[in-house]
Amino acid sequence: MLIIKLVLKIINAILAFILAVAFASVYVPPAYLPYINALGLLVPILLAFNIFFVILWLLCKDMYFLYSVMAIAVGWGQWTGVFSVGADKDTTDTLTLRLMTYNVMSFYGQDGRAGEQVSTSVNNTLDVYSPDVICFQEYRHFPDVNLSEWKYSYRDKNVALYSRYPIINKGSLSFDDTFNNAVYADVKLSAGDTVRVYCVHLESLEIRAGEVKALSTSHDLSNDVKGLWGRLNSGFITQGSQVKKVVESIKNSPYPVVVAGDFNNTPFSYSYHSVLQEG
Fold first, then answer.
1. What is the pLDDT of residue 238?
2. Do residues 197 and 253 touch, judged by C-beta distance below 8 A?
3. Engineering a disulfide at 261: which of 95, 200, 242, 257 sits with its beta carbon 3.0 to 4.6 angstroms away?
4. Non-local CB neighbours of 238 within 8 Å, separated by 6+ positions
5. Which tens digit of pLDDT belongs to each residue from 128-168?
6. Would you tell me how many other CB atoms lie within 10 Å of the CB of residue 71?
């Protein structure tokens, strides 16, 4: 029994350490410490194990639960950025802006074809939520999608921004060597206030679910894992350079900022955290 308990404590210590490093990785640009940012993808799994150990050691009345508690505490600032903790302030009397971000995958359906079913689904979604501003990623012109209510727009590469309110200024951050991009528009609201809206589409990590599943039957596991890991790292580095442009633009904005889009990453990533810090 003592041996089992010792083994569990060793496993707990290792998993608590990895979770703490994963949380801390959001402060490190991917180019500085290659591969470490990939740990952010494992946060849900690592968190589940650490919560299990907290419950286990509490039931055993063993103070070892503090290791996992401290690891979870390292990411407290990130939790409050994902979940609204203690946000009970009444905002019913303030001006609101209804904004939607939507990766439309070039208006292709799950069967890889564009058609009436896709346009009907998109149009129904827009009718239900009735946003003032729409941020599209992987956008292309598709005439069957009705955007007539949003008279003001701006598009560059594969991102587009549509607004019911006038756009008084706009710009593109022009990411290098990619179709991904970020654009912004200064939107003049009905009350006379102006807000800058960013539509962001960061580089994909180029990892498909089928590839991960295929590793279990791989005939060359070492090389397959190495290739997948290398693509992940390359994606993180590219995202890091792209988000740097976004952050620099936000800092220079003369207006309050709203950022929306597809970050191709989790809330426990350097990219997400960097933008959130400017909010």
1. 92
2. no
3. 200
4. 178, 203
5. 999 999 999 999 888 788 999 999 999 999 999 999 999 99
6. 25
Q: Is the separation of the CB atoms in 249 and 173 below 8 Å? A: yes
pLDDT in tens, 97-116: 899 999 988 887 666 666 66
pTM for this structure? 0.85
Q: Are 232 and 260 in contact (CB under 8 A)?
A: no
Query: 45 pairs with which residues across the strands?
Result: none
3-state helix, strand, coil in the chain (%, to 5): 45, 15, 35
Q: Residue 8 corresponds to which tokens in the numbers above? A: 């569990």
SS3 34: coil
**Which of these, 204, 208, 201, 185, lies nearest to 139 by C-alpha position?**
201
Q: Which residues contact 193 (CB under 8 A, 6 or more apart)?
A: 95, 256
> Which positions of the chain have pLDDT values less than 70?
80-95, 109-116, 208-221, 224-225, 279
Strand-pairing partners, residue 184, are: 171, 198
Listed residue (147, 146, 143, 171) closest to 159, CA to CA: 171
Q: Which residues contact 88 (CB under 8 A, 6 or more apart)?
A: none
Q: Do 201 and 158 contact (CB within 8 A), yes or no?
A: yes
- How long a stretch of residues is the chain? 279
